[in-house]
Amino acid sequence: MTVLILGGTAEARALAAQLHERAVPVVSSLAGRVTRPRLPVGEVRIGGFGGVEGLTAWLRENGVRAVVDATHPFAERIGTNAFHATRAASVPLLRLARPGWQPTGDDRWHWADDLDEAAALLPGLGTRVFLTSGRQGLAAFADLDPLWFLIRCVDPPGQPLPRAHEVVLDRGPFRLDGERALMTEHDIDVLVTKDSGGAMTAAKLTAARELGLPVVVVRRPPRPSTTETADVAAAVEWVLKQ
Predict the structure, then answer these.
(1) Rounded to an integer, what distance in angstroms lies between the CA atom of residue 165 and that of residue 63?
(2) Measured between alpha carbons, how far is 56 from 50 in angstroms, rounded to an integer?
(3) 97: phi > 0 → left, psi -120 to 50 → alpha, else beta; which?
């Protein structure tokens, strides 16, 4: 009986490695949105399932005994599809989600419910923006002509983009000294990020705090309620009990 792990996150890769060590058959499913993804050990499939019906059929056809949704906190669609498909196929589901970031007393955070709200906040906060929300959804910032954007993403973004911008292609983990230097070199006065959580990209928040910069943080979208853990070891134990 196979375990399906959804997502290409660091947590998903760690879980696949630990289950592989215990000789548990695992299939890791990646969305395929990144050109050169970091691949987990074991069997990997890339691409969508075809919605709830397609995922339900796949679970049944492949004798899946359990599903772990370890997708990115903002991968709302696949998370919702997994919730409904596992119930339709009578397969247990666990959400493995890293905790969100928490501000300290020295942070100047401004929360937004989505990228549109984040864009609306920017004109009152700064003019040179470090935009680290990923390459999807950049159209929300395309009409902010008076502002300049340093856009960082893993793969080249599509159009539309803000008129005044520079794109840097890079992926974490990022170091504090590098983030501080990048913001200083480009005269950044406001940071935009999603509440992705985790240590790989958290250095930008520390750099912004040290530089006294405001940060616009996009809240995580809601997910259907299911069994959840933030700990890979706990996820391993959950799988072994199914």
Answers:
(1) 48
(2) 9
(3) beta
Q: Is the pLDDT of residue 149 over 80?
A: yes
CB 127 within 8 A of CB 147: yes
- Contact assessment for residue 6 and residue 70, using Cβ atoms and an 8 Å cutoff: yes
CA distance 108 to 39: 36
Question: DSSP class of residue 105?
Answer: T
Tokens 């993804």, residue located: 37
Contact at 8 Å (CB) between 128 and 189? yes
Q: Distance (Å, rounded) from C-alpha 140 to C-alpha 163? A: 12
- The CA–CA distances, whole Å, from 94 to 97, 125, 190, 201 equal 9, 39, 36, 25
SS3 190: strand
pLDDT in tens, 61-112: 999 999 999 999 998 899 999 999 999 999 999 999 999 999 999 999 999 9
pTM of the model: 0.88
For 28, the 3-state DSSP assignment is strand
The first and second tokens of residue 152, run together, are 């960082």
Query: What is d(CA 41, CA 148) in angstroms, rounded to the nearest whole number?
Result: 41
184-200 exposure pattern, b = at least 16 Cβ within 10 A, e = fewer: eebebbbbbbbbbbbee
CA 151 to CA 115: how far, in whole Å? 14
Phi/psi of residue 143, each to 5°? -95, 5
- Each residue of 151-180: pLDDT tens digit? 999 889 988 999 999 999 998 899 999 999
